[in-house]
C-alpha cells in the first residue's frame, strides 16, 4: 500500500491522531464504530501494541487490520481473545468496571459533558429521531475514564441538550477537530488547540461561553509515522 | 423436541398477528429470511423487539407490519439512519409506531431475566439520564447493602426467531462467532424458531460455540444464506455494500415499496 505524508494533516486526521495518543498508556478501551474505532486501531498499531480493544458486540481483544464498517464484522470475532454474549459484556466486563477507557461519540454535548444520542426536538414529536442510547449510558458509568470524540460545531456543542442520554461525570477529555476540552471545576474548558486553530474559532463553534485555560496548549503536529499509519489504515478500509 | 420443518410452515404455525416477536441478532446472524417470510405471510400489528433494529426492522416497519418497537439502538450500523423507521416516528408513515426504549445493558438484562423466568433484573444504570422517565425501570434498594440500584422488567416475547450456522436432525442448534443475545431470547420466549444455514448429521464442537438443545426450541427450518446481508461466520460474508445501498433506496417511500415488492414480497402470490 503506498500512501504519502506529503500533504499536511487535515483537521479530521489531527483529531484521530490526538485521540490515538490518549491511549498510549491505556490497558483497555471500549469503542464504537467510526472515528473512535479508527483512533483505537491506530493507537494499537503505532503506540501501544498491548492495548485491548473491546467492541460491544462482545469481542474482547480484537485485532483488526482494517477499520470495520460495523461493530460486529467477522474480522473482530476471528481475531479476538474471546467473544462473549451481550449480557456477559454489559454485566461481567463493563458493569464490573473491567474496561479502563471508553471512546464515545454523540449528536449533542453540553458543558458538563452530558451526551444526547436519542432525539433532536421534543421526545414525543422529534424533529430528528437519533439511534438511541445503545451501550453508552452504562459504558460511561462503568469505565474509569471517558473520552468523547465529536465534531466541533454549535450543532453539537449546545447550551442545552434536547435529551440527556448519557451522563458526563467520568469524562476526562473531549477531542474535536479544533482542539481538546477538559473539565475544570465541573465545566468543559478549552485546554488545547490543534495547529493553526485559534481559541476564538473554538469559542465561535461552541454553543455556550467556552472558558479557555490560562496555559492553553497547542497540539503537537502529527508525526510522519502517525500520519502514514493512519493513511494506510484508512486506505485499507 | 424441535420439529424440523420448512420456514413457511414454521412461521405459519408460530407467529400470529398482534404477537410480540423478537428477531434477534447482534450485527451477526440476523434472521432476514425469517423476517421476510413474516412479511410474505402478511403478519400485522406486531410488537417488534430487538436490541439493535437495523435493515430488517426498517423493512418490516416500512411496510406497516409493526405497531410497537422495543429496542435500545436503531441505526444502519456504520452507515447512518434507518429512514423507514425515522419516517414512522417523525411522520407516522405508513402508520404511527409506539416506542419503548432502553439502553443495551437494560435490554440484555431484561432478556436474561426472561430466560431465568424471573420478574425483573437488577443493574446499575439509567440514573441521572432522561431515559429514567421515559421507559419501564424502577429504583430499587439492595436488601443486603442498601445500595441504590435499578430494576428492569423481564422480557418474555411471544416468539423468538434467531438464525444459526447448524442444526442436527434432532433440532439441536449450534451457533458460533458473535453470540449476541440469541440464547437468552430463545429461552425467554413462549415459542421459538431457529433458522439454520444447514442441517448436519452431527454437531461438531466449535471454539466459542453456543449449543441450544432442540428440546427448548419449537421449530428448526433450513434457510441457507438466511442471514444475508448480515453474515453467518464461517459460511457467509457480511454484504457491506448492501448496507450502504439501503441508505439510498430507503430514503424514498416509493422506491422502498417498489424494492420490497420486487425483492421480498414477490414470492407471496406464487404460494
Q: Note the overall shape of chain A.
A: globular
The fourth-level CATH homologous superfamily of chain B is: Glutaconate Coenzyme A-transferase
Q: Helix count of chain B?
A: 10
**Total separate domains of chain A:** 1
Quantity of strands of chain B, as a count: 13
Overall outline of chain B: globular
Rounded to an integer in angstroms, the radius of gyration calculated over CA atoms of chain A is: 17 Å
Structural class of chain A: alpha/beta
Find the structural class of chain B using helix and strand composition.
alpha/beta
CATH topology of chain A: Glutaconate Coenzyme A-transferase
Number of strands of chain A: 14
Measured by DSSP, the beta-strand proportion of chain A falls in: 25-35%
CATH architecture title of chain A: 3-Layer(aba) Sandwich
Largest sheet of chain B: 10 strands, mixed
What does this entry look like structurally?
The complex is a heterodimer of chains A (237) and B (271). Chain A has a single domain (11-236), classed as Glutaconate Coenzyme A-transferase. Chain A is an alpha/beta fold and 237 residues long. The mean pLDDT of chain A is 95. Chain A has helices spanning 11-21, 35-46, 74-79, 86-94, 136-142, 199-204, 224-236; strands at 28-31, 52-55, 59-62, 82-83, 101-104, 108-109, 115-116, 119-121, 126-129, 145-149, 171-175, 179-184, 187-193, 211-218. Helices cover 27% and strands 25% of the residues of chain A. The N and C termini of chain A lie close together (12 Å). With 271 residues, chain B is an alpha/beta fold. Chain B has one domain (3-103, 155-270): 3-Layer(aba) Sandwich (Glutaconate Coenzyme A-transferase), CATH 3.40.1080.10. In chain B, 31% of the residues lie in helices and 24% in strands. The longest helix of chain B has 13 residues, at 253-265. The mean pLDDT of chain B is 96. Chains A and B meet through α3, β4, α4, β9 and α5 of A and α4 and α5 of B.
